[in-house]
# Entry
Amino acid sequence: MSIRSSPLLIKGITHPDDAPLAMEHGVDGIIVSNHGGRQLDGAVASLDALPSVCESVQGKIPVILDSGVRRGADIIKALALGAAAVLIGRPYAYALAVAGETGVKEVIKHFIAETELQLALSGRSSIQEVEASLLIQVK
# Structure
């Protein structure tokens, strides 16, 4: 029995072999992130790492993308490649700095509107309909 009452997420996974290891140690979810690539020049892009990390967990825990999400199309790409959700750190932080709570509400409103537009343009009516064939040729 665990003493923690909140889910434990681990951030910084970019290699598919690390995801099952994290699961063995009891994580409840994985955040695919290269921390903006600032710590290691030439690090693998988080979006490139996402599909193999998702495949390695086999749907047993959620995989979240944290990397350069700046518009609705980025959300659709991440979901199509297997992410359960995305994090929007910089847009949220910038909006908070410029306009406080109102700024954050506006950024989230714009993300929702852009994502809905991208769904419509792709012929999908809901997030549940987003899958890999939007981005890659499925054989």
Helices lie at 18-24, 46-57, 72-80, 89-121. Strands lie at 9-13, 29-32, 63-65, 85-86. The CA atoms of residues 34 and 119 lie 27 Å apart. The first helix runs from residue 18 to 24.
